[in-house]
Amino acid sequence: MVASVMLLCVLPSLTRFQSAHALYSSALMLASDIRCHQQEAVGAENENATYQISFDTERDEYSLMLATERLRTVLLPGSVDLVFTNFDYNLLKFTLQGAPVSGGHVMLKDTVSGKSFYIIINPVAGRVRIDTVPPE
Questions:
Q1: How far, in Å, CA of 132 to CA of 115, rounded?
Q2: Is 28 helix (H, G, I), strand (E, B) or coil?
Q3: pLDDT, tens digit, for every residue of 82-115?
Q4: I need a surface site. Which of 12, 37, 93, 107 has the fewest CB within 10 A?
């Protein structure tokens, strides 16, 4: 009986911790995938290749693409919401030098706590960073 009461007290904290961890690890993974796709664009042998990442805010997933071919699709955990991007048509495209065609950001939100992370891509250098506040 005592164990049941303790479990009921601890369970909500455990759920919040798990969803916060899912948000943070999703932000890290997305930032890593962006950096990796940039490097693939730099190493491309085909000068006509278009490396891009397509974000689907309805399905909470993103796809790493080469032209129109989906190389890999990543579905975010259930507690993580892909809220929005400010890229045209939700597409982040890279030049063959690895620079983004346009800078911008992606917002991920924890549906349990309401906390958010922004994955921010610098338009000039292509630097990728994670922050808790949106870019100015």
A1: 8
A2: helix
A3: 999 999 999 999 988 888 999 999 999 999 999 9
A4: 12
- Delineate the domains of the chain, giving CATH numbers in brackets: 2-131 (3.55.40.10)
pTM score of the predicted model = 0.88
Instruction: Quote the DSSP letter at residue 105.
Output: E
Burial category of 87 from C-beta neighbours within 10 Å (exposed 0-12, middle 13-18, buried 19 and up): buried
pLDDT of residue 1: 66
Measured at the alpha carbon of residue 127, what is the angle toward residues 126 and 131, in degrees to the nearest 5? 130
- Residue 72's DSSP bridge partners are 64
E strand or H helix at 98, and its extent? none
Residue 88 per-residue DSSP state: G
